[in-house]
Structures are given as structure tokens and as C-alpha cells.
Design brief:
This protein has about 280 residues and is mostly helical. The chain has 15 helices and two strands. Strands 1-2 form a two-stranded antiparallel ribbon.
């Protein structure tokens, strides 16, 4: 199974930088740099393995998988900027604004977002499905999704009641959009999509809670970025406001809910389920 996931990851890594030439100027150089930094490729892998779970060839949809990772990478570039989270390292490498400058980082992120939709438009998928996927992804990253969640994060004043709403918008909606994009390729019924959405949001919130936990007790060298920043930044880290034990129990609850919903959907493809587990139980 690990070999299978490694093969998909390699396909995504190769596809990401295809057609991007760092010799054509600093913008493409910065984009190439951001895409070349090794990551988990979680979101495209969820998309591809769910497609494979329904016995469709995931390699036919590698453009959409790469587009999903381009969207995620754009968000990381912007999140790392001094005006946002102000991080110097990402995945063990200097962030784009540290390696280049703030302006180039802004442009690189903007370009990656638009490039993602160019990649989707070139997909071999049915044109009607492409239009629907564009709608799914843009909803997942707009005011009701990632961007809206980031805004709530920046405005956070210590009201713990809003933390899980931030987690849902900022993190879970894009993860769910990856699953719904796969569901569009598969041709899943609306009723099944509703259950899949519940699973996607649940695992997405659990994933962010696990990330909150990692910030408190993780290893910086292993993670590849500065940790324990949330306390000093007064960030909406659920562990700081609810405590470790409560959040660990919540992670278990959300994970079990996800597994129950996937069982109802009869999704038992081992690589997909493996990714779901690794999202929330990082040390296993």
C-alpha cells in the first residue's frame, strides 16, 4: 500500500512542475520552488484514491489532482506572509517570501490559484463534470471556505465558541471539496454526496485539531516549521482553549464518525482509509 501511495505521490510531484520553467523569470522560478518543496500531497491523494476506490483510473485525472495541490500551495504561500502567519520555514525550507520577497510571494500565490483552474480546464474529464468541479473547489476556498476561515482566524479575539467554525471553513471545506470533486468524477448520487460531505467535514475538523495538537507537542525538525507559535500569537488553537485531553477525545469522536459514514457508503479501499487515519493520528 505504501508503494501504491508513493507511486501516486510521484505522479503528482512530476505533474505539478510540468510546463513550469524556472529559467523564464523570477515568477516561474518562485512557483517552481514552491511546488518542488516536498509535502504530503494529502489533498490530491484523497482525490485520486477515492476515484480508484470506485475502479476508475486515477491517472486520467492527474491534472485535477495537481490543480488541487496548486490551490493548497497558493494558500500556504499567502499564509506564511508577514501580514498573515509570518513564518520563515515551510516543510523544512525557507518560505517563498523569505527566499524571494513579499511581492513575488504574493504574485506566485495569485498565479498558482489561476493556474489551478487552467489545469482543470485541460482535464480529460467530461466538460459538465469539469464545470461542476470548478464550482465545488471555488466554493471550498471562497468566503464560505478557506478564505473566509482565514479572515475569521485573523479577527480572532479569544472567543473559543468560534474555533470549530474557523476549523470548518479554513481547513475542512477544502478537504471536503477534494472528496466531492472525486464524487463528481465517480458519478455519485446526491444522497451519497451528502453523507460524503458529512465525512469530509468531520475528518477535516479532526485534521485541524490534530494540527493544533502538533503545534503544542510536536517536533520542529520533524514537522519542518516553527511550532509553539499559537500561544504567543493568541491563535484559535483548540488545544489552548479546550485542553489536550478534550481535543484528543474529540479527534477520536470525529474520526469514528467519519469511518461510520464511509462504511455506510461502502468505501473500504485500503489506501484511502489509510490516508484518513494518518490525517488525524500522525504518529502511527
Amino acid at each position: 500500500m505504501i508503494e501504491y501511495i508513493d507511486k501516486l505521490t510521484e505522479a503528482v510531484d512530476k505533474g505539478l512542475v510540468k510546463g513550469i520553467d524556472p529559467s523564464r523569470g523570477v515568477l516561474e522560478e518562485a512557483i517552481h520552488y514552491a511546488l518542488s518543496v516536498k509535502g504530503k500531497r494529502l489533498r490530491p491523494l484523497l482525490f485520486l484514491t477515492l476515484i480508484d476506490a470506485y475502479e476508475k483510473d486515477p491517472m486520467e485525472y492527474i491534472d485535477i489532482a495537481c490543480a488541487i495541490e496548486c490551490i493548497h500551495t497558493y494558500s500556504l504561500i499567502h499564509d506564511d506572509l508577514p501580514s498573515m502567519d509570518n513564518d520563515d520555514y515551510r516543510r523544512g525550507m525557507p518560505t517563498v517570501h523569505k527566499k524571494y520577497n513579499d511581492a513575488i510571494a504574493l504574485l506566485a500565490g495569485d498565479t498558482l490559484l489561476t493556474y489551478a483552474f487552467e489545469r482543470i480546464s485541460r482535464s480529460k474529464a467530461d466538460p459538465r463534470k469539469i464545470v461542476n468541479i470548478l464550482g465545488i473547489l471555488t466554493t471550498g476556498i471562497g468566503t464560505e471556505g478557506m478564505a473566509g476561515g482565514q479572515a475569521l482566524d485573523l479577527e480572532f479575539k479569544g472567543d473559543k465558541e468560534i474555533i470549530f467554525e474557523i476549523h470548518r471553513k479554513k481547513t475542512a471545506t477544502l478537504i471536503n471539496a477534494c472528496l466531492l470533486s472525486a464524487a463528481e468524477i465517480i458519478g455519485m448520487t446526491d444522497e451519497k454526496k451528502e453523507r460524503l460531505t458529512q465525512a469530509g467535514i468531520a475528518i477535516g475538523i479532526a485534521f485541524q485539531m490534530a494540527d493544533d495538537l502538533l503545534d503544542i507537542e510536536g517536533d520542529e525538525e520533524e514537522v519542518g516549521k516553527k511550532l509553539k507559535k499559537d500561544l504567543g500569537n493568541h491563535s484559535p488553537n483548540s488545544v489552548l482553549f479546550y485542553g489536550k485531553e478534550f481535543i484528543k477525545k474529540e479527534i477520536d469522536t470525529y474520526y469514528k464518525k467519519t469511518m461510520s459514514l464511509l462504511k455506510e457508503l461502502k468505501i473500504d479501499f485500503a489506501p484511502f482509509l489509510f490516508l484518513m487515519e494518518k490525517m488525524v493520528y500522525r504518529s502511527k
